[in-house]
Structure formats: structure tokens, C-alpha cells
């Protein structure tokens, strides 16, 4: 047992050194904006995306796969401070034949007009992208000589993006493979992956997620809020509120992502509260 734990630590540490991943850069129990990331793949089958994510996880790299608007699956990973660092990591992985073509996703800024991931090709290019849940918006040239000023995106719009991203996973038999994943992490790993795709790094476990963010009364829930469940104030489950009294969650290991009603007796009895990160 001790040897296996030491082996996992060595693998994770070496992956951080070789590929400059952010896994030791910051403690988990905090919220932060993500930096540059790497996106790879355009898989027609979810199991192919899952296998790639699992291979990366085996190298100590936290990787997340998701469904795009065109119904293909992609994998995204990394939280790099600069574009140069992201490119270096991606090229090293490509040289090691762990990934093929890729492109660098820039950090999302609230004052940048969102572009859907589908607009970017799988090449080594610098593409500013929106979260995985964003939809494509046509960009038309201005009809006057006055400059067009993009207004910052309100918090509720960012929450809507998180909710739509979560809904894309519904029906997918989501799995968390790799040596870095611990038993019982499924529901919080799903939530973490959705927020990662939205450009926000949140803590790993549901208990840590419950400790950060803004407390939200149940009657004031908006899309994108996290809802927590448990017993005797001990958190054991988490999901993402998507509006209309419903939330999306990962019920158990290797099960399909599902939509559930907050008003179901099993959830009302165990409801502990909600948090907002936007």
C-alpha cells in the first residue's frame, strides 16, 4: 500500500516537472480564474475521449472531456500562466505521442465577446475561446464608425453558461479513470470539470467546495449555483443547479449524468445549502 501511494506521488510529481502542469502550484481549497489550457480531439465516440483523458490522468495531468455543440467530444487540460507554457506542455505531450493535434485556449475575460469552441480548428494556434457551454454568436461588422464596446458579462450569464455546460453531459456515462482519481470523487469531479470548462478552478472535493464561494438561500438559486447534500452537516453529494427547480449531478461511479428535482423527498431531507462562485 505504501509503495503504491509513493508510486502515485512520484508519477504526479514527475508529470508536473515535465509538463509544467499546475497540480502543485496552488492548494485545492480555493477559487481562481484559469489560465491557458490545451484542447485536443474531435471524437465521435465518448469512450475515445474517455480513454485519452484517462491516459493523461495516468501521467498526473487532470484532463476533462466534454460534448461539443456539434455532438463530438473533446478533451481539455492544463492551467498554465502563459501561452508559451501551454504550448511547451502540449508539444512535449505530442512528442511523447500522448496527444495529436491541439490548440491553445486563452483565458476567458468577461469583456471579450464569447466564441464557441467549434469555431476553432485542431491546430497549434492561439485561439481565444469561451467556456465549453457557450454558443456560437455571429460577429457582424459595425455599421457606424463608432467603436463597439463590449459590456462585461453579468454573473447570471456566466451561471447560465455553467448550467448549459452541465446539461451537455446528461446521459453520458461519465467516468473518472487514471491513478490520480480517488474513490467516491465522482459527483465533485463532475462539478469541478464543468467549472474548469467555464474557466474557473474550484476545490476538488464536495466538502472543500462547500467551504468556499458565497452562501445562497434556496429561494434565491440561479443557474450555475452548486447545491449540496449530506447528513449532520457533513457534505456527501453536490450538483449544479440548472433552473426550474432542477439540478444536474453524477449519482454514482460510472453512472450516467442525470437531471433531478430538488423537491424530491430524498434530496429535500439531505439538502445542506448552496454556493455561488461567479
Automatic annotation (TrEMBL):
One of its GO terms (molecular function) is peptidoglycan binding. InterPro entries: NLP_P60_dom, Papain-like_cys_pep_sf, Peptidase_C40, SPOR-like_dom, SPOR-like_sf. Residues 122-155 are annotated as: Disordered. Residues 30-106 form the SPOR domain. PROSITE patterns: NLPC_P60, SPOR. GO terms for biological process: proteolysis. Residues 156-278 form the NlpC/P60 domain. Keywords: Hydrolase, Protease, Signal, Thiol protease. Transmembrane segments: none annotated. Residues 1-25 form the signal peptide. Belongs to the peptidase C40 family. This is Uncharacterized protein. It comes from Syntrophotalea acetylenica (Pelobacter acetylenicus).
Amino acid at each position: 500500500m505504501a509503495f503504491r501511494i509513493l508510486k502515485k506521488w512520484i508519477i504526479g510529481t514527475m508529470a508536473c516537472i515535465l509538463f509544467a502542469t499546475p497540480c502543485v502550484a496552488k492548494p485545492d481549497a480555493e477559487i481562481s480564474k484559469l489560465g491557458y489550457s490545451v484542447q485536443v480531439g474531435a471524437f465521435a465516440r465518448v469512450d475515445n475521449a474517455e480513454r485519452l483523458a484517462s491516459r493523461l490522468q495516468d501521467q498526473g495531468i487532470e484532463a476533462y472531456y466534454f460534448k461539443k455543440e456539434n455532438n463530438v467530444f473533446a478533451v481539455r487540460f492544463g492551467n498554465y500562466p502563459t501561452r508559451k507554457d501551454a504550448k511547451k506542455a502540449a508539444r512535449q505531450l505530442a512528442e511523447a505521442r500522448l496527444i495529436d493535434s491541439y490548440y491553445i485556449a486563452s483565458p476567458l475575460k468577461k469583456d471579450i465577446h464569447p466564441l464557441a469552441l467549434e469555431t476553432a480548428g485542431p491546430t497549434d494556434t492561439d485561439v481565444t475561446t469561451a467556456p465549453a457551454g457557450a454558443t456560437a454568436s455571429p460577429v457582424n461588422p459595425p455599421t457606424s464608425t463608432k467603436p463597439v464596446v463590449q459590456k462585461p458579462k453579468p454573473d447570471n450569464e456566466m451561471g447560465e453558461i455553467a448550467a448549459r455546460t452541465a446539461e451537455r453531459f446528461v446521459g453520458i456515462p461519465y467516468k473518472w479513470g487514471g491513478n490520480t482519481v480517488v474513490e467516491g470523487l465522482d459527483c465533485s469531479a463532475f462539478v469541478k470539470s464543468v467549472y474548469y470548462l467555464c474557466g474557473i478552478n474550484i476545490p476538488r472535493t464536495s466538502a472543500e467546495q462547500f467551504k468556499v464561494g458565497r452562501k445562497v438561500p434556496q429561494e434565491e438559486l440561479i443557474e450555475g449555483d452548486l447545491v449540496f447534500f449530506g447528513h449532520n452537516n457533513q457534505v456527501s453529494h453536490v450538483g449544479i443547479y440548472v433552473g426550474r427547480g432542477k439540478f444536474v449531478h453524477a449519482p454514482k461511479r460510472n453512472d450516467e449524468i442525470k437531471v433531478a428535482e430538488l423537491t424530491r423527498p430524498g434530496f429535500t431531507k439531505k439538502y445542506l445549502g448552496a454556493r455561488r462562485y461567479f
